[in-house]
Design brief:
The N terminus is likely disordered. Strands 5, 6, 7, 8, 9, 10, 11, 12 and 13 form a 9-stranded mixed β-sheet that branches. Strand 8 and strand 9 form a beta hairpin. This protein has 2 domains: 43 residues, 2,3-Dihydroxybiphenyl 1,2-Dioxygenase, domain 1, CATH 3.10.180; 116 residues, 2,3-Dihydroxybiphenyl 1,2-Dioxygenase, domain 1 (Roll), CATH 3.10.180.10. By secondary structure, the protein is of the alpha+beta class.
């Protein structure tokens, strides 16, 4: 899935040692650019922008109830061109220290997030090449069809419906997915 609006989503990695983790990013083949405010803007080897920040991360909110169900942004999905997939998987696992597990066939791998981390990270191998790695948000939904319809009523556009998820595009042009994962279970 290629996001037609570049630069729309990036990760913040919270750490007590920003300079130490920045050195690790460089050692693993990423790029770093320190900022005057104490955080570091980084790039993965495939070009996904992310930041290293020294303040503690937030807590995971509970699912939000809507007429027809509940939903929760529960996952960031990294969309990786096929030629960069193995390198990106290794980079993110080595950088975070989270184990990499296969899930749902050859096209997906998941980083095993520790308890207390609010968002899961899924790495998706795209079918086609693109200039670099992008990312999108995934929502866990009690009723994926009702949630997709609710988002369309709010201005989202249906891109396609797959077996486990529905791809939508928000009014600003960024893609995201409503999934059939139950909120609060991942």
């Amino acid at each position: 899935m290629v996001d037609p609006v570049p630069g729309g989503l990036h990760l913040d990695l919270h750490t007590e040692d920003v300079p130490g983790l920045a050195a690790r990013v460089d050692a693993l083949g990423g790029s770093t650019s320190p900022h005057a405010l104490g955080y570091v803007v980084c790039g993965s080897p495939g070009g996904l922008t992310f930041c290293l920040v020294g303040h503690p991360g937030g807590r995971r909110p509970p699912p939000q109830a809507w007429p027809g169900g509940r939903s929760l942004v529960d996952q960031v999905c990294l969309d990786v061109p096929p030629t960069r997939y193995d390198a990106e998987c290794a980079f993110w696992s080595d950088l975070t220290g989270w184990p990499l597990t296969a899930t749902g066939g050859r096209e997906f791998r998941r980083l095993g997030r520790p308890a207390g981390i609010p968002l899961a990270v899924l790495i998706q191998r795209l079918d086609d090449e693109q200039p670099g790695v992008t990312a999108h948000l995934d929502l866990a939904c009690d009723d994926r069809d009702a949630e997709a319809a609710r988002h369309q009523a709010l201005g989202a556009v249906l891109v396609r419906r797959c077996d486990g998820w529905t791809v939508l595009r928000d009014p600003a042009g960024r893609t995201y997915c409503a999934t059939r994962r139950a909120p609060g279970e991942v």
